[in-house]
Amino acid sequence: MKRFQQHIAVLAAVLFAAGCADTYVEEYVPEAPVIESFAPASALSGEDTPIVITGRHLHAVTSASIGGREVRILERVSNTQLSIVATRDARTGPVELVNAVGKAVSGETLTIRYPVPVIHAEALPGQADMFGELTLKGEYMAVVRKVIFTPEGAGQGREAEILSQDAAEVVIRVPYVETPQARITLRYDEADAEVESPLDGAPQIGIVRLVPTLDALAFDRLIVGRITTLTGTNLDQITAVRVGGVAANIASQSASQLRFTVPMVEGFEEGDANATTLAIDYFDDFESATLSETIPATVLSFKIWEGITTFCQNFACQRLESFFSPETGVVYHNSRWRTEVDPVSYAKLGATCSKNNIPSVTEEEYNSVAPYFFFNGNTGTQGTANYCTLQLNSPAGSNGQLKNFSFENKSGSAYRLLPGNGYGTPALTFRYLDPAAPNEKELADKVRNLDFLTIDEATFPIDTEQKTVAGVNLKTPVGSTNSSIWAPGIFTPGVESLSTPVDAVLLVLYYNYKGMTDDALANVKRIGFIHIVSADYRPLNGTAPALSGVTFNVYWQKDDYKY
Fold it and tell me: Which of 40, 67, 159, 184 is buried most deeply by CB count within 10 Å?
């Protein structure tokens, strides 16, 4: 009876396995692998011809080597057969197989033969762009270790970057070459020695050197902080713009145009009595050219930050760099908000204001936080109409926005800047300069053209009785303003619109620790201007543009108003 029950159990197991296609029973490996033979007895280095190994316990082999160098397992055919290939790292010696239990070493030696790679010169193009891709066709190309371009007349060349290769071809990126002609040689292995094909008789190719050519400078003076434009041809080959030896930040670059921010140079003083050099590096900094031996440079008496981009709040945003301070000129990653941007707000969990833009912290606490602002995606209703806009915000202008920003690309309250509603510390307000109003358009154009030398109470006077700044009415300044105001009709709610020109100018007021009390203009510490240049309007799930990026310029007062 007992034997009969065992037969039934075995039959049930077989039927169950046969009836369930997804059933998998892991094979138990009781012993180390055993190598009985392999064929062929020799192989070309780097060739994909299979070397078939016969033996036992081969199904679960985890690694293989030839001559002590690991090679690729091509196929685990069965428990008694395995195939490998002699990659270019293989060396003459025994075959070794390893599994979870142990290893096997063959009694015979597998001989590795080393072929000489050859470029098919007739398949080469007449010329190739320097730093461009080039395909070299030939024989035994899989064993190539390096591709060397030697300039005409030189005895030593430079290594090209290998992008891909197989037995029939190598795809490389052409390196820097000083001359219009170069010879191509190959380096490859012969056992443990690296050898190079002869330079004499090596195939030759023309090198297209796309040397940058600059138009006449469209400016006769550099202004520190300004984005300045160079035009010409092959400007995409430029790797650095240097002012007085200091590398400038390149804001954008194409073959015909390069825009850079003029850096501050040691020794520059405020005013227009500075002079410096202007130069470019190109071809991966191998070559350079001086555009001007002496060019005047101006350091204005206010702060200039141009070509700034910040991003909106959702954790799914590609970049979590949402906060900009016009005082420091830094775009802060959201992860720095708690420790560097606004530690006062974080310590008080957002309880820093009694209401919008009216701080409830000490003067010392307030002044310890540099002014900053941010953009967010906003939805709501105005009357009977729904809106879906980009919103420019003061940290102390809304108690419901900071909690929506994440400091990691993860959802959940644990990754929010604030766990709940709460204000930031600095109080700012914004006033869109409406081009339909002549005096506001005039002021906005001055900002666009940088047609002023300073930002102070004389140039932009504040009239606390009339509630104006530089003649612009400020009876109702706001702590947040939507793109429906400063970009009317530009964005369609729910429809992605990338690199969209905006060209909006806003006046910014930064208040002292008293904030927006009844006599708010008397509390203004500094003013500045934001010129919103463009935006990547990117809605989230077809609603709020919480994935957007905004690019802008900022011009900011250096010293407090003196009333």
Answer: 184
Rg of the chain (C-alpha set): 35
CATH of region 34-113, choose from 2.60.40.10, 3.90.1150.200, 3.30.300.30, 2.30.30.30 = 2.60.40.10
Question: In the chain, which segments carry CATH 2.60.40.10?
Answer: 34-113, 118-208, 213-299
Q: SS3 for 99?
A: coil
Please check whether residue 439 is in contact with residue 472, taking contact to mean a CB–CB distance below 8 angstroms.
Answer: yes
CB within 8 A of 216, min separation 6: which ones?
Answer: none
For every residue of 189-226, DSSP letters joined together read EETTEEEE--STT--EEEEE----EEPPPS-SSEETT-
- Specify the fold of 118-208: Immunoglobulin-like (2.60.40)
| 113-129: b (≥16 Cβ within 10 Å) or e | ebbebebeeeebeeebe
**What is the distance between the alpha carbons of residues 500 and 503, in angstroms, rounded to a whole number?**
10
pLDDT tens-digit readout, 35-88? 999 999 999 887 778 999 999 999 999 999 999 999 999 999 999 999 999 888
Instruction: Extract the tokens encoding 229.
Output: 């434009």
pTM: 0.70
Judge if the upstream peptide bond of residue 263 is cis by omega within 30 degrees of 0: no
Q: Which residue has the tokens 């063959």?
A: 106
